[in-house]
Amino acid sequence: MIRSGMTTLSEKPFCVTDKPMTNEIPENEPRIIAFDEADDNARLDKALVRHCPELSRTRLQSLIAEGAIKRIADGSVLTNAKHKVKAGDEISLIMPALKPALPQGEDIPLDIPYEDDDLIVINKPAGLVVHPGNGNETGTLVNALIAHCGDSLSGVGGEARPGIVHRIDKDTSGLLVVAKHDRAHQGLAAQFAAHDLTRAYLAFVWGAPSMPKGTVDARIARSQHNRTKMTIVKGETGRHAVTHYAIQKRYGPPHEPVASLVECRLETGRTHQIRVHMTHIGHPLIADAVYGRGLLKKRKGLTEDAADYIADLGRQALHAAELGFVHPISGETLHFSAPLPTELAQLATYLAATPVS
Fold first, then answer.
1. Catalytic pick from 39, 169, 171, 182?
2. 103-123 residue pLDDT tens
């Protein structure tokens, strides 16, 4: 186990199962499963979830389709996930060898506050894309993790790849957690789905909200006019999104701040949520080329040095500063914090020089 910069808050059990087990079924070694009364007349995939909680139902359905399940009594291969099992049936599950990850490992330096056999926490720099995609097939966090973790990746979804539970934008810095195997991925994903974790960001925004703290509750959907952007929508369309904010510092005249540092705590985690919500209440992020384009010229009161620095910053002023969750295997509550990166700490210095009158 590798620990660095980690604070344990408490112990709160949150595990996929209380049964002791390995994190993954060994490759090519049959696991014999005997179905009991609790499984009688259940679908094969649902019954297997009960006996193999370290594997997701989706993963088990894939294994069924691949012919990994064999009935002991007659040697027949069960390939239908809807097959109804009977109490007393016995099957063997043979886990195939992991498929090589499609992305290739690359030797990219990583800032790692915490790592163990189940997961890894990364303090991502701005400019690093999390996952390969169109235009970013290489040089991503996933490429870096494949190289760094090596054989410690037990695999997610049948591939020797890291399990990305959540992402932060390319030009946002800060903390994110990644699973090394299916069981950890399941446990983390469940916490994200239930919003049962802590995520706090520091954002430098133009102006300052009128109240020292507040909540933005506004649904978000992809823009119909620009598919690279998200937008606020009314009614029941879009996805529910809630951001709680609190002003940490104001820069410039007290009656009309030029900018402010705002802590944003996520209740939900939608694409571009903080950037869209802060723009929605009239305070877009500084240097946000998508949602705050052109605003620099409208800001009076900045020093010339600050204006020049912001013009060249090259990233939105947003940092994932805090991450807390329950370890999906041990049940230990973990909490991490990451200070502002150098370029945002320098931005704070320039903004602090803004005249107050």
1. 169
2. 788 999 999 999 999 999 999
